[in-house]
Specification:
six-stranded antiparallel beta sheet; five-stranded antiparallel beta sheet; single chain; mainly beta
């Protein structure tokens, strides 16, 4: 597995991501949605869409965060990726991104704008190589990294997973 991880890190040019894991932006639309055409919550115009490669290795996690856009995840290689979503109703959903369709895994799924979500590869010595497409396009101005104590106070019933997927 480590040979594949090193291969992808080098060939795809992945670098460390602020929320955990490694990534590289591979697409940012040159076309912009004007600010006045966007829903509330966007401070300026945004590209039509953006896309990244994203990789997590066992022991790494993508910390709980939320963004102002929908984010579609795509599975490429490696082990199943668990994506934990706390939706706008406070319900915790564990999505499985992978290739075992018989076990309920999905090749792709979309996390709606405003949901809190974090992810991790839960397979020993495993890694998950995925892609994320965001529309309207991603901008760090629309990104909020969760504060552990505040998120646990808002959702005490999910305190254990929040503790594991926050810094």
């Amino acid at each position: 597995m480590q040979n594949k991880v090193a291969y992808y890190l080098e060939k795809l040019g992945l670098t460390r991501h602020v929320e955990g894991g490694s990534f590289k932006e591979v697409y940012r639309s040159a076309n912009l949605i004007p600010h006045e055409a966007l829903p509330a919550g966007f401070a300026a115009a945004r590209p039509f869409g953006t896309a990244i490669y994203f990789m997590l290795e066992e022991g790494q996690f993508s910390a709980f965060h939320r963004i102002a856009s929908d984010e579609t995840w795509h599975f490429y290689d490696g082990a199943t990726l668990s994506i934990y979503e706390i939706n706008l109703n406070g319900q915790l959903i564990r999505h499985q991104l992978g290739r075992n369709l018989e076990a309920g895994e999905q090749f792709q799924l979309t996390i709606p704008a405003g949901s809190w979500f974090g992810s991790r590869c839960e397979v020993k010595y495993g890694f998950s190589l995925v892609g994320c497409t965001v529309a309207p396009g991603f901008d760090f101005a629309d990104f909020e990294l969760a504060n552990k104590e505040a998120l646990q106070k808002a959702y005490p019933q999910h305190a254990v997973i929040i503790d594991k997927l926050t810094h």
